Amino acid sequence: MLLICRYQVSPDREASFVERARRALALLTRAEGCLHGDLGRAVDQPDRWVLSVRFTSVVAYRRALSPFEIREHVVPLLSEALADEPATYETLAEAESGVVTDHPSLLASDDHRLG
Hints:
alpha+beta, 29% strand, Alpha-Beta Plaits, 3 helices, four-stranded antiparallel β-sheet
């Protein structure tokens, strides 16, 4: 399961945003079932940022959002993300060292398996 939150951050808010995003990454990646997280900035539009965090499952993602410290520090940051696109995605294929592994869809209504 992949969480992707996109942000538009003005230069005067950049330092505060980065501090909050780093704290969110630290808290989320401590959670059981969290594989890793990243914070990035668009090369062509430096006011655009992305926070992405990968979890082993939807259950791990939901459990990671449950602790009070997460609800206090992370959820407010997530709620500030641009809302014009979905933020959570299922992983249907992943690759490492040239080998692609497909995963079954988590959606009960349809199997969106690639390949």
